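Researcher: Here's the sequence for the chain we discussed earlier.
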Amino acid sequence: MIKREISEIKRQFTPSSCSISRICGCYVDGEKNKKAQFKEAFLSLPEEDMFKYFEILRKNLSGTLGKNLLNLEFPLEAEKEGGPHEFLLKLRASRLQDDGLLDQFYDRIIETYEHVGNYLILLIHDAYDIPGKTSDGLEMEDASDEVFTYLLCCLCPVDLSKPGLSYNELENTFQNRIRDWVVGMPELGFLFPAFNDRSTDLHGALYYTKNANDLHDVFIEQMLGCPIPLPAEFQKESFQAIIEDTLGDACDYETVKTIHENLNEMLEEHKDAPEPLVLDKYQVRSLLEQSGVEEEHLETFDKNFDETAGEHASIFASNIVNTRAFEVKTPDVIVKVNPSRTDLIETRQIDGRTCLVIAVDGGVEVNGIVVTGSADKNNTGSQPEA
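Model: Thanks. This is the structure I predict for it:
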């Protein structure tokens, strides 16, 4: 799924557009016991409750593609009879009216979801009548030819509210506030099936994780039966290791700067595209070639990529480059530069030492104090060091 398709589903979570047929929930305590369950016709809920649920559902479809939102594909093994895929299809077909299937679903989540403390399993069934679109992108409400029937599951922590004082209006006094168990925003969830090309894709799902570096591997592998994607931080670390191992002694400042400049240019050119920029092994190799890495250093690239990230791995460009700052770090100094002005920094050999030289023509502030050029009055003519 791409941002536009995710946004289209999120727009249905309003009172005027809502087509959710049913909502179910199971409250689980810290000992993995089912403490309470409920199931309701969604449109029969009080309006105040609806808005709270809408907020949770929208959050479960929020974040950055490739970090918090991950497109998963079901392998053939998962789609076999008795597998996780078949179970989800049965649950969807039941419209959440089969208590036995719901109990099995809750049990599977409790078994595979590692969470310290209490949490709420929320599950909705929706049938979205997809409006047709004209060639210029305008929706035609009366031209629908498909209904997207899906499940959306949210796993929300339930914690005690913070202690404090509250105002009692009847007694006109301040008193200790009663602490309640409060449902938080989801930490994990998924939409099944996927909504790709504005149509039902039974072979995919959209996965949400609040913590991009903790994907809950067991949940993905056993509950959904899908291959585990690379976490955002692992993608970044893998890319860095591939560059260092491939370039070896040629991994100098200018080469790395050029690689990141080219990455930023690629992201800029891609910014209006509906899908995020994703690099496979061959595109990363092409990036290095365009950045001036010589062929002799690329001889080990394929091996380094396969061993570090995996032969068929895909890396989201937004996970490996910071478009807001270019960072140069030594054990004692960190320099951050606007990515469009990396030309202000260069390396030089001064008095036998490798130094970072920073152009400061625009003025300098030290702890917020504007300093003048008088700091150079004792300069004997050698280039300043940074």
